[in-house]
Amino acid sequence: MSSPVRKPGLIRSPNPDQDRVGSQAERPPAEIAVGVARLRDGAWSEDSDALAAEEPLEIRLTWGEDGVIERKSLAVTMRTPGDDFALAAGFLYGEGIVRAREDIVDVAFCQDEDEEQRFNIVTVTLRPGLTFDTARLQRNVFATSSCGVCGKANLEALAVMGCELVPDGFSLAPELVQAFPQAIRQAQGIFSRTGGLHAAALFAPDGTIVSLKEDIGRHNALDKVIGAELLAGRAPLNNRGVVLSGRAGFELLQKALVARIPVVIALGAPSSLAASLANEFGITLVGFTRPDSFNVYSRPDRIRNAAIANGAARG
Question: Where is pLDDT greater, at 202 or 135?
Answer without folding.
Answer: 202
